[in-house]
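pls design
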């Protein structure tokens, strides 16, 4: 009975040993056969073989098929190398795509910046044009205002109005100025120095008839003009004198009335100013005091 029990145990041990030894023996014999199959052909075989493309031969995968728990490192490396090569190729493709994307993005950003710069330059040009147009419009308005002012000035050059009038009395036949006459002339001329836009109208009358009256009146006007020029520096061009003798100019509104005869020798001075003097800060009107004698 003891022998009957020992025999099955020995048989089981042998069976287990064979199951372990066979795969090991197959794994050890596989690389040798594989290396022999993958060995390069001789030179004679290369010479006789036709020049055709050699296709890779299928590798044997051993007793265990694709999954071999007892595979060696070389065999595993041969199986993994194609996968590594593919992964490397994919990495290169991904790197190239990344570079292309960055290049496209850089060019897009450069285009956007260029477009923005062009838009900014256009806006700046438009702003400059608007400023220049506004400046030109203001200049045109100033020029128009200046032209209007010049037109008003030109229109007012011949527009005079009477400010005041004084009368200087003379002794019969004598052109000498009395103290009263000089006082009136001093009061008239005291405020005229340095002012523009005025003239003095001087009319001399004499009771003498004919040429004698005209000569007497001329001497009186010369005496008045001489005094104003020498004593008060009134410009000669601002004084307009006429010797009327015994002629009398009718007053406004009395054309139908016969003028009265000239009975005394006298000189009438009228202070006239135009629009230029009216627009000035001070006018010749201030030169005449409120107490100046009126005709």
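designed seq:
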């Amino acid at each position: 009975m003891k022998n009957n029990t020992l025999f099955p145990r020995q048989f089981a041990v042998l069976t287990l040993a064979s199951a372990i030894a066979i795969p090991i023996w197959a794994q050890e014999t596989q690389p040798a056969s594989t290396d022999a199959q993958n060995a390069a052909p001789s030179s004679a075989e290369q010479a006789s073989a036709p020049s055709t493309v050699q296709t890779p031969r299928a590798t044997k995968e051993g007793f265990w098929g694709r999954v071999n728990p007892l595979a060696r490192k070389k065999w595993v490396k041969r199986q993994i190398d194609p996968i590594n090569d593919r992964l490397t190729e994919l990495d290169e493709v991904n790197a190239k795509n990344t570079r292309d994307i960055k290049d496209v993005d850089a060019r897009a950003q450069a285009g956007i910046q260029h477009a923005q710069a062009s838009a900014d330059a256009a806006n700046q040009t438009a702003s400059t044009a608007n400023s220049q147009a506004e400046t030109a419009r203001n200049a045109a308005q100033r020029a128009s205002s200046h032209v209007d002012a010049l037109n008003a000035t030109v229109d007012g050059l011949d527009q005079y109005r009477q400010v005041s009038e004084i009368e200087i009395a003379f002794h019969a036949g004598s052109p000498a100025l009395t103290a009263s006459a000089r006082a009136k002339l001093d009061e008239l001329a005291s405020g005229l120095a340095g002012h523009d836009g005025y003239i003095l109208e001087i009319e001399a009358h004499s009771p003498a008839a004919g040429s004698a009256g005209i000569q007497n009146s001329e001497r009186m006007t010369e005496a008045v003009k001489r005094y104003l020029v020498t004593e008060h520096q009134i410009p000669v061009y601002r004084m307009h004198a006429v010797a009327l003798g015994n002629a009398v100019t009718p007053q406004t509104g009395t054309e139908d009335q016969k003028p009265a005869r000239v009975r005394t020798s006298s000189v009438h001075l009228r202070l006239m100013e135009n629009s230029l003097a009216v627009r000035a800060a001070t006018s010749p009107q201030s030169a005449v005091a409120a107490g100046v004698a009126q005709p």
